Amino acid sequence: MDYQAVLEEVAAHARPYVRQGRVADYIPALEQVSADRFGIAVADINGDVYGVGDWETPFSVQSISKTFSLALVMAQSHGGHDSIWQRVGREPSGTPFNSLVQLEAENGIPRNPFINAGALVVTDRLQTLTGDASTSMLHFLREESGNEDLAFDQAVADSEAEHGDRNAALAHFMASFGNLENPVPSVIEHYFWQCSIEMSCRDLAVAGGFLARHGLRADGSRLLEAREAKRINAVMLTCGTYDAAGEFAYRVGLPAKSGVGGGIIAVIPGRCTLCVWSPALDARGNSVAGAAALDHFTTLTGWSVF
Ligand code: GLU
């Protein structure tokens, strides 16, 4: 497979979609990013990396961090990870990522780890396991991406905290059901920090390599059991792209996780991990050009999981 040629064709296909959406503005610091950006990268399972466009430009990972916090909780739980599934489900929610509506009827147990409520539970668990959830995440991402320069973006974390009433409400509501182990202010603070980490398409594609290698890191050491990597990929496929996961599976056919910074990471198990970035989002919160690019990538290569 000539990845470079495929990526160039995919980028050419996606460019007309680049401005067909809106940059997220509910976190004001995210609105500063130009809608014109587009980058895509592929890291294959042997460690070769290819990219086109703004593939080396850092952007706010936002909810893509939810994939890595879940992986880190599983990795740190040393086989006892099943306990996280007592506290969070693995069904698509069909509701927006920051919705409160299901939580009351479902006794404070979020539908899945990739909506905000579920991610707060995972961050809470990581805080218990590590004593410093966001710094552990940063170190983990530096190690997996091989980029020691990865950092939090303080302006984004502050902006999110300032406008974080919805996430605070989700956390307090779950705490009222006894589904948080740590104080609400600490859980949301670590969650905002983890969302503010800046990474490029290159960094994210490389860092997500263990998902394509059935749990193995680039150096061959084992981060997760194969069945754990399979589970994360399965939850990405069914829940990773907000309340458009069905549509995304229909169009792209890959496990994927999007973020409101405009990034989407996607996994082709046994082959490679992709990351695409373009900040303008559709109404559900997925990058318009990013989804078009991944759609075209699986069409060209025939490499969906179906
Ligand atoms: N930090 C964002 C929030 O909690 C993440 C949203 C996202 O990327 O889906 O609203």
Could you characterize what this model shows?
The protein has about 300 residues and is of the alpha+beta class. The chain is about 45% helix and about 10% strand. It has a five-stranded antiparallel β-sheet. Strands 1-9 form a two-stranded antiparallel sheet. A hairpin with a 4-residue loop joins β2 and β3 (about 50-55). The mean pLDDT is about 95.
| Count of alpha and pi helical runs | 14
Strand order of the largest sheet: 3-2-8-7-6
Counted up, domains total 1
Sheet/helix structural class? alpha+beta
- Note the overall shape: globular
How far apart the termini lie comes to 19 Å
CATH fold-level assignment = Beta-lactamase
Q: Name the CATH superfamily classification.
A: DD-peptidase/beta-lactamase superfamily
* Rg on CA atoms, Å: 18 Å
Unreliable stretches (pLDDT < 50, length at least 5) are: none
Topology pattern, helix = H, strand = E = HEEEEHHHHHHHHEHHHHEEEEH
